[in-house]
Amino acid sequence: MANFEALALDMLGIGKKRLRKIPVGEDFRIDLIMLDEKIRQDRDNGLHPICAIGIAGTTNTGAIDVNGVADICRKHDFWFHVDAAYGGPAAALDDYKPVFNGMERAESLIVNPHIWMCIPFGAACVLVRNSEHMRRTFSLISDYLKSRNRENKQTDLMEYNLPLTKDFKGLKVWMTMKAHGGAQPASDDTR
Predict the structure, then answer these.
(1) Environment class of residue 112 by beta-carbon count within 10 Å: exposed (0-12), middle (13-18) or buried (19+)?
(2) Cβ neighbours for 84, distance < 8 A, ≥ 6 positions apart
(3) Against a cut of 0.70, is the pTM above it?
(4) pLDDT digit string (tens) for 9-34?
(5) Bridge partner residues of 79 (DSSP)
(6) What crossing angle do the helices spanning 67-76 and 32-44 adopt, rounded to 10°?
């Protein structure tokens, strides 16, 4: 199985060795005391940790570990990312919302709708609190792509992700939700 976190760090140019994995307890949730301690140790050793990842439902155990990680991120002024690839859709259900407390504090979040929502593989949703962070990270417009009509502030998705050419993966998500509905019932005035 691939280590996606290490791959992401490598893609960012930080290097795989800079990924700090924190042990989990018997409940498969991160050891928050150890996380806090490792952050302090890294800073004492001249490193500059920047992010912690909370889990909103792991694939293997279903463990949800969000609120405590969010608290530590706030304490250390860290970027708080939530891996909701597996459990994210359940957070939209009223009965389960309280279990996911803390997700709303994330700077970024990922959901893979193909896991629970019967959406064809290959559609992932990355949500960010401030899309300008993504645009500043990924935007590199070559001369041949520059438009004379840039003044209209039209959003071009090539400025928000790695691939320049992309298919319309969002259509899979939209069509499935249109056909089967979302977590919340539609109001009478939208039918």
Answers:
(1) buried
(2) 56, 57, 91, 100, 103, 109, 110, 111
(3) yes
(4) 777 777 777 788 899 999 999 999 99
(5) 51
(6) 20
